[in-house]
Each structure stands twice: as C-alpha cells, then as structure tokens.
Structure prediction request, 211 residues.
Amino acid sequence: MIKAVLFDLDGVIVSTDHCHYRAWKRMADEEGIYFDEKINDRLRGVSRMASLDIVLERATRTYGDDEKKKLADRKNGYYRELISELTPADVLPGAMENLNKLKRNGVLVAVGSSSKNTPIILKQIGLADFFDAVSDGNNITRSKPDPEVFLSAAKMLGVSPADCLVVEDADAGIEAGRAGGMKTLSVKGAKGADYAAADLSAFDIYERIIR
Ligand code: BG6
Ligand code: MG
Prediction:
C-alpha cells in the first residue's frame, strides 16, 4: 500500500529546466563550448558536477579540478540569479492539486531532488514548510540513478521503500526509484516507470494509483 509519495522537484513540481539550460548555456558560450537543448536533456536529475562533466564532453581542452569547481560555481551563480525570480506561480499545473489531495487523504509527501538549491527553490515557490520530508543534494553523496536520495526520504518519513511512489521526469530518477524498490510514476516521457502521465495536470495520483 502506498503510504508516501516522493516528488522530484525540477521538472515535476517546478519547471527550472529552462533556468538550468540558460545558466549552462551562458557559461558554455563564455568558454567557447558547444551546448544545446539536447545536451541539456541529458543533465536532468544528474548532480551539478556530473552535469559539468557532460557539458565538458564538447570542450576543446581539458579542465583541471580547480577550474572545474570554478566553472560549476559560475554556472550556479547564473542559475541562482534566474531562480531568484521564481514565484508560487511557477509551480507546474496539477502539482498543488495532487499535493493537497494526497495530504488531505493522509498520504505523506516528500521531495527527492539531486539539487543543492532545493531549499532556495522551495522558499521561492512558497513550499518551504509544506513537505513531510525534504531529501536533496545537500544530504546525499550519490546522485540519481543511485537510489540514495529517495531511500533517505523514505527513512526520514519512517516509511518502507515498498510503500513509496516516486514521481519523476528523468530516466535517471525512475531508475533510482526502481533501484530503491519503490513504485514509479513518470511524467514527460521518462522511461521505465510502472505508471506514466503526460504531466500532473490531468492525472490524479490519489485516485489513479493509491485509492
Ligand atoms: C536536478 C536537475 O534536479 O538537480 C539537474 O534535474 C541538476 O539538471 C541537479 O544538475 C543539480 O542541481 P543544483 O541546483 O544542485 O546545481
Ligand atoms: Mg527532474
């Protein structure tokens, strides 16, 4: 029985994809590194440093560890500028309806995100105190597709992994949920999930999966 729903943040609760894209693009352009939307798609669910390694596949020279740290910091600075503009209106269609319905019916809700910016984003969109647990890039050492972020969310909630449903927009996130022994719901075409929805606007998680 599903007792908790673990939501990915970027691309499921709020659309920060374009902010990540613009920040990486700005940094890549400055460095003369080719970067496009297709490469950006591969960064979904992947940690900041692992994302940088993917961006640097197109670099014409190698970067040392110190330089890489500086590039990641620079991208994050650009990203922070962009997410400082986020408001509750940026919560994706259907997300609030689903979150409220789950809560009303006694289902626990948590965030499971690779992002270290999760606390800032939750504050911007007015959900800093909404979730029963928040597991993010600040409390994990292994990024999706490793299940660590979701397993630690389940632990915070005191719910066994088999009683959790993971909602994800990234292939790596679905893989992480499955590796953790959880049920999975994909949005936006993420592959390999038990259930799929185009997005959360026309999908009632409680009625369709839990009840
Ligand atoms: C994930 C995004 O949620 O967070 C990735 O899907 C991103 O694209 C990752 O790289 C890490 O984010 P941050 O905010 O810690 O740089
Ligand atoms: Mg995502």
About this structure: The chain has a mean pLDDT of 97. The first strand starts at residue 4 and ends at 7.
